[in-house]
Amino acid sequence: MGNGTRSDRAARTARSPRTRSTRRTARILVLVAAAIGLVHAAFSAYWALGGTWLLSTIGAIAVEFSRREPLESGLMLGAVALVKALAALIPVAVDAQRMPWPRTWRAICWVGGGGIVLYGLVNIVASGAVLLGILVPDGGYDRDAMIGHALLWDPLFLVWGLALTGWLWLTRPAPASGPESRTNAVK
Predict the structure, then answer these.
(1) Short-list 133, 166, 158, 130, CA closest to 145
(2) Which of 1, 61, 108, 114 has the fewest Cβ atoms nearer than 10 Å?
(3) Which ranges in the chain belong to alpha helices (H)?
(4) Considering the chain, what percentage of its residues have pLDDT values greater than 90?
(5) How far apart are CA 168 and CA 163, in angstroms?
């Protein structure tokens, strides 16, 4: 390793406000996000292969579709499992600097993380309101699905999104802090 490499690393470290503790917290958050995403993906894969445990917690329509159209249901749920697994693992690869175009992937992660936070939160509130009798749907509702959404799947989506966006926030690029940036800030 030449001196240029060592001095470049020292310069980056000197202008970066990130601490070892912050980096460790960010790593934990991206791993928590990945674990939750993989739990979601594993259930989708399990249902794609014909499993039925907890299937009723996503809705009677899913149970009926799985029973009536097992091939189509399996293919659809298999695709969902694949997307969830990729959404869980790509941020880990970005964090480990193993993905090309990290800025592009981070932008996609910001959109995805914000989207799953919003999705989880809205569905927790809506299904909770139905279970509490605040909202009364015409024609009744699927109690198992409402419980599943209020207490299991959507809280997992919410925590997945919060962990992902927390990682993104903690690993955002540090603002430049050199003589040029101070000069430009004064102008």
Answers:
(1) 130
(2) 1
(3) 3-15, 20-48, 60-68, 70-95, 102-131, 143-148, 154-170, 179-186
(4) 77
(5) 9
Task: Give the CA distances from residue 51 to residues 42, 45, 69, 89, 115, in Å, rounded to whole numbers and listed in that order.
Answer: 11, 9, 14, 24, 28
Confidence of residue 5 (pLDDT cuts 50, 70, 90): low
Task: Name, in order, each residue with C-beta under 8 angstroms of 181's C-beta and a sequence gap of 6 or more.
Answer: 175
Indicate the burial class of 32 (C-beta count within 10 angstroms; 0-12, 13-18, 19 or more): middle
Global pTM reads 0.81
CA 167 to CA 20: how far, in whole Å?
14
pLDDT by residue (tens digit) across 37-83? 999 999 999 999 999 999 999 988 888 999 999 999 999 999 999 99
Between the alpha carbon of residue 98 and those of residues 30, 75, 89, the distances in Å are 14, 29, 11
Total count of residues recorded for the chain? 187
Chain centroid offset of residue 67 CA: 30
CA distance 80 to 44: 7
Confidence of residue 85 (pLDDT cuts 50, 70, 90): very high
Backbone angles phi, psi at 140, to 5 degrees: 85, -170
How confident is the model over 96-107, as a mean pLDDT? 95
